[in-house]
Design goal:
325 residues; single chain; binds 4'-deoxy-4'-aminopyridoxal-5'-phosphate; 10 strands; 36% helix; alpha/beta; four-stranded parallel beta sheet; six-stranded mixed beta sheet
Length: 325
């Protein structure tokens, strides 16, 4: 009989799929790594189990303990799978801009969800980072996972996602495109791929409202760059330890509207019902198309599934309210 011993054993080894219509004017092949094939439907399943096993090895989490995390939703799901497998309790803090689907999915997995205001400074005591940190001090045998600064995050992508991409492209990859949130994906994959071939270009996709692009180009952390935006999962108002800026060759900013419209195109024109940051990444790539040549092999990370955005980018009412259509 062929079966997995646990749902978490099915994490990783996601497919690469050619983008056909949207990229037809680009000179080269564009391959999407479809991370919604993970059991929790996002790339964050990969880091969830690894960050927990790393904490267990370090003695930071013991039997019957509580996992606490601040998350835009997907890491919560990845951690929830690990918590279910290993019998931990789990609490997440989530900014109130995140989709209701993400909140309900976490509740379905037995997670306690605490909603915090989006429009506060990261250092504010009400921010989702601060609330999570404070809870760790109050709950015995608990762990604040902190995907932003926990280097087991990028190590997962260095050890697994990067090698998968290298092997799937027979080492022919020339460009990796990934949205940057915690920076774990782009840094881990980028570190591995540049070790294999230092000429591989690593392009990070950023949002308007995030500090990354300016910080990368000038070294200045400019608070004026920070404002609320609708694209979920990428862009930051902090500099997480997982981002290694010298691995990233350039950042490209994509507007919320372009990200949302491209996400819709991915569904209608490619049959890929993807998350909001997938549209952002593809939009960013198209903005950078003049840098591409015929023989290039581009891999673009598609972090999650569209089912989490049915009330947002796939909802006409929401899109009209945002003035995106
Ligand atoms: N897209 C989505 C939907 C995400 O949830 C995240 C994680 N915040 C990312 C992209 C960015 O990935 P990373 O945190 O590894 O930079």
């Amino acid at each position: 009989m062929k079966y997995a011993n646990h749902i978490t054993d099915l994490i990783g080894n996601t497919p690469l799929v050619k983008i056909n219509n949207i990229t037809k004017d680009l000179p080269c092949i564009v391959l999407a790594k479809i991370e919604s094939f993970n059991p929790g439907h996002s790339i964050k399943d990969r880091i969830g189990i690894n960050m927990i096993e790393d904490a267990e090895k370090k003695g930071l989490l013991k039997k019957g303990g509580t996992i606490i995390e601040s998350t835009s939703g997907n890491t919560g799901m990845g951690l929830a799978l690990a918590a279910i497998k290993k019998g931990y309790n789990m609490i997440v803090t989530m900014p109130d801009k995140m989709s209701i689907e993400k909140i309900d999915i976490l509740k379905a997995m037995g997670v306690e969800v605490i909603i915090t205001p989006t429009n506060v400074d990261a250092a504010d005591e009400k921010s989702y980072y601060s609330v999570a940190k404070r809870m760790q001090t109050k709950i015995k045998n608990s762990l604040y996972v902190n995907q932003y600064d926990n280097l087991a995050n990028r190590l997962t992508h260095y050890q697994k996602t990067g090698p998968e991409i290298w092997n799937q492209t027979d080492g022919k990859i020339t460009h990796l495109i990934a949205g940057v949130g915690t920076g774990g994906t782009i840094t881990g994959c980028g570190m591995f791929l540049k070790e294999k071939n230092k000429n591989i270009q690593i392009w990070g996709i950023d949002t308007y409202g995030s500090v990354y692009k300016k910080y990368h180009e000038t070294g200045v952390f400019d608070k004026n760059e920070i404002y609320s935006y609708t694209t979920e999962g990428i862009g930051e108002d902090i500099i997480p330890k997982n981002v290694k800026f010298n691995i990233i060759d350039c950042f490209e900013k994509v507007t919320d509207k372009d990200a949302a419209l491209m996400t819709r195109r991915l569904a209608k024109e490619e049959g890929i019902l993807s998350g909001n940051s997938c549209g952002a990444a593809l939009s960013g790539l198209i903005q950078l198309q003049n840098k591409l040549k015929k023989q290039d092999v581009v891999v673009i990370i598609m972090p999650d599934h569209g089912s989490r955005y049915l009330g947002k980018v796939y909802n006409d009412k929401w899109m009209k309210k945002q003035k995106f259509i």
